[in-house]
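Note to self: user wants both folds in one dump. Writing first protein now.
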Amino acid sequence: MRKSMQERLMTMIVAGALGVLCGCPKGGNQQDAGADLTVARDLATQPDQATPPDQATPPDQATPPDQAVLPDLVALPDLVALPDLTPAPNDLTGGAKLSTDVQSIFNTSCSPCHTTSVPRSAGLDLAPGASFASLVGVNSSACTGKVRVVAGQPNQSYLIEKLLPSPTCGAQMPRGRTPLSASTIDIIRDWIANGAQNN
């Protein structure tokens, strides 16, 4: 280790003093010893220059964390258009047609008897092309005060009553045959409820 400034100064002072006192400094003369004292005195008057501290090394700058990569937004599919649930005119649950849905029932279960060619038809003609004029808004010829079909009101229509057990007048229709099923009667109800149109 290197000697400090104070240690060197003390060494020079002691060496110079001994040389002056004895008059025979080792390796030199009295003049040199005096010079050593002068140098030592000059050194004593100079402040000890402290070694400047090392420049503080700035800490490593923290590496910024990686920016979070946002996932790509998945494009939403186009909304699927919902189908139109409005019943079609000939839908049996919301728009039965006379010419197709209802007339087919008349053809199978009613028109064999209810035509103009059959005397006991009570003037009710349910043949194709004639059923509308014989039903809608027409009073029953067999039951006073009853209207065969009241448009928009199936429960007030005598036609529906005659298809059910124990009608007000006469027997349940079709006479002498298997009664119509509830689902078949509902088709006729639907036609009447939707205005009993001549469609």
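First done. Writing the second protein, which came from a different request thread.
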Amino acid sequence: MHKRRWKLSGGSRAGKIKLIFIILGVVVVGGGGAAVFLLKGRAAETETGEGEAGEGEAVAGKQEPAQIVELGEFLANLTSQNQLRYLQMEVALSIRGEGLEGEGGGHGGEAKPELPREDLLKAKDVIVAKASAQKFATLRTPTGKQQFKETLKKALGQALPDYQIEEVLFVSFVMQ
């Protein structure tokens, strides 16, 4: 048998390149359309509470997003050998709870979420006490700062049992 070889004949090099670009364009547009279709379907499942939870299952207790509560600036003496050392920091909390006042996030004139005065004072007391017990040498390291955050998170969780502390945020952190 005789084998036939197919050739693109009669076309210039520019024509072949043009054909390749047209084919690539069709593939990209088709792939983009498929991606939009698939992602749009996922978004609809998420909005209706389906998807990973399953069609017939109800989504259990939709949790409110954590709010950022600014606690303000703190100044504390640090323990150090033979020198007086200071820590100045501004702290915020990523927190969940029913008792937050002025929830809304602060956009468009909305009130920023705040802790009730009694809880705010408890939180500030815990932060000052824990900060004053820290060693200058420890807080100089990234690991020391992270451990201090974990210490604060645990202590604040105990002092404020009505709230779920997600994260302690250092907005500023200066030692001298």
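Dump finished. Worth passing along: The chain is about 40% helix and 20% strand.
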